[in-house]
Amino acid sequence: MLDVITIGSSTVDFFLETEFPLRPWDSSLGSAMIIPLGEKFSAIKSLITTGGNAVNTAVTFKRQGLRVATAIKLGGDIAGQMIYNRLQEEGIKDKFVVWDGDAMTSRSAVLLEHGERSIITYQGSGAALTISDLDLKKIRAKWWYVSLSGDSYKLFPIIAKKSREMGVKLALNPTMKHLRDGKKQLLANLKYTDFLVLNEGEAAELTGVPFSERLEIFKAIDKLVPGIVAITRGSKGSVVSDGSHVFKTGIFKEKKMEDRTGAGDAYGAGFIAGLIRAKAERGECGCDTDKLEYAIRLATANSASVVEHIGASEGALYKRDFDGSSRYKTLKIVKDRIK
């Protein structure tokens, strides 16, 4: 049996590192790039590579020594072939890849500025998964890792209920569109979720509680999710709840911030890889806290490595890199009981 099948989006990402002037702006980072119309500009660096939640996470799982496949939809174009080739290069099983010869594969233009980025996305085939594309009875694994882009979020109730019926553990990273447009169905089906990963903004959107009231957010989500909840906080680290305790940690300071694209995928996939590896290597007798802290450490390390590279999965850690590096051996994790 496979360890993980990732279900969701796949894209080709075009990265351009720029030096556009910045201006104050009402946005998450408080600034905006100024790009005058009608002029040409030179990029400092350029890279064309693969992206999308399902591909990014599959790369991490494979590099961590797990048996992984991905369920994605590709268009019949060069971009689709490029994604397929990446799966072959990484050794990711492709038996659940669906081809639509009439569709254009999803793609994104990513403008980088000092490690931060703005992304323009054409949804394409990656956001057009339908239930007929997923033969869920045949997609058997210990875990499904799900992140559905575009209108494919509408598949979540079917996927969630089927995971419980088949005895598959379900990991979910909802998109902001899923949280806003499909919030009602999401809330109704989180009871099937074994692992939920969100960033601060997504957690606030889901609960209606500002992230400054962190414990209230976890109390709200823990009532909905029977499994583990992880909330990433960018450079501030992450907070994880198992329903009884909250685990707070910082980050492994990056050597150089190159690109934040894929950091969330790296954390989520690293966490599940950590849980699977801890169970395999330490057995069922290992205490839950030990396994959770191992998963947090691997997730944090993987995210740090990814942001040190341009591209959403280029820096994903290999098993040997995590196990053999003194850099990732220790991470301060503070454990508090939820009152």
Write out key terms for the chains shown.
4-stranded mixed β-sheet; 339 residues; single chain; 10 helices; alpha/beta
Architecture overview:
A hairpin with a 5-residue loop joins strand 14 (228-232) and strand 15. This protein is 33% helix and 25% strand. The chain has helices at 53-63, 78-90, 156-166, 176-181, 183-189, 200-207, 214-222, 263-282, 288-307, 319-324; strands spanning 2-8, 11-17, 22-24, 31-33, 45-51, 68-71, 73-75, 98-100, 107-113, 116-122, 141-147, 169-172, 195-199, 228-232, 238-241, 245-249, 333-337. The radius of gyration is 19 Å and the shape is globular. The termini are far apart. By secondary structure, the protein is of the alpha/beta class. Strands 6-1-11-12-13-14-15-16-17 form a 9-stranded mixed β-sheet, sandwiched between helices. The protein has a 4-stranded mixed β-sheet with strand order 5-2-9-10. The longest helix is centred in the last third of the chain and has 20 residues, at 263-282.
Shape: globular
Main sheet attributes: strand count, strand direction, barrel closure: 9 strands, mixed
Our count of helices gives 10
| Radius of gyration based on Cα positions | 19 Å
**Helix- and strand-based class?**
alpha/beta
Short description, anyone?
Helix content is 33%, strand content 25%. The protein has helices at 53-63, 78-90, 156-166, 176-181, 183-189, 200-207, 214-222, 263-282, 288-307, 319-324, and strands at residues 2-8, 11-17, 22-24, 31-33, 45-51, 68-71, 73-75, 98-100, 107-113, 116-122, 141-147, 169-172, 195-199, 228-232, 238-241, 245-249, 333-337.
